[in-house]
Amino acid sequence: MKIVVDTETGLAPWRQVHDQIVRAITTGALAEGTRLPPIRQLARDLGLASGTVARAYRELETAGWVATARARGTVVTIPSGRPDPGALLRSAAEEFATQARDLGTGLDAALDAVRTAYRA
After folding, report:
1. Are 46 and 7 in contact (CB under 8 A)?
2. DSSP classification of residue 84
3. What's the rounded mean pLDDT across residues 79-88?
4. Helix or strand or coil: residue 9?
5. What does the pLDDT look like over 44-54, one tens digit per residue?
6. In whole angstroms, what is the distance from residue 102 CA to residue 120 CA?
7. In 3-state terms, what secondary structure has residue 75?
8. Which residue(s) pair with 66 in the sheet?
9. Dihedral angle of Cα 98, 102, 105, 107, to the nearest 10 degrees
10. How far apart are CA 15 and CA 32, in angstroms?
11. Mean pLDDT, residues 76-102
12. Can you tell me the distance from the alpha carbon of 56 to that of 79, in angstroms, rounded to the nearest whole number?
């Protein structure tokens, strides 16, 4: 699993970690039962504070994406009622649209940014 945190996006680092793990789970890159790296290790690898990664893991656990047990660590789960990929896409689009509006970006510029990002 490769996670990249970009401090220039304006999106909180914990949210970037969270979203990338959710994406990896929904695409099948992280299967049920896969153990995630320990909080301290992932924080060190990403150059983040342990509390930042802990928050991402806590939010993932609250949403049912992972389960944490002392002996097993944090592992991917398959929660009932998991949103379908279409619902996740709509949610991501809503977040992007909100950020674009907050930045004062017009619709055409926002769509151009999406097209550029999609091709990358």
Report:
1. no
2. P
3. 68
4. coil
5. 999 999 999 99
6. 24
7. strand
8. 76
9. 30
10. 21
11. 80
12. 17
Of 93, 80, 25, 99, nearest in space to 57 by CA = 25
Cα radius of gyration (the chain): 16
Q: What is the pLDDT of residue 94?
A: 86
Q: How far is CA 20 from the centre of its chain?
A: 3
Nearest to 118 by CA among 96, 103, 91: 96
* DSSP label of 62: H
Maximum C-alpha span of the chain: 51
CB 37 within 8 A of CB 22: no
Decide if 76 contacts 33 (C-beta within 8 A): yes
Tokens 């656990």 belong to residue: 61
Mean pLDDT of 71-86: 78
Per DSSP, the three-state class of 68 is strand
User: Which residue's structure tokens are 């150059």?
Assistant: 47
How many CB atoms neighbour CB 91 within 10 A?
13
Residue listed under structure tokens 């990664």: 53
- Percentage of residues in the chain having pLDDT higher than 90: 61
pLDDT in tens, 7-41: 888 889 999 999 999 989 888 899 999 999 999 99
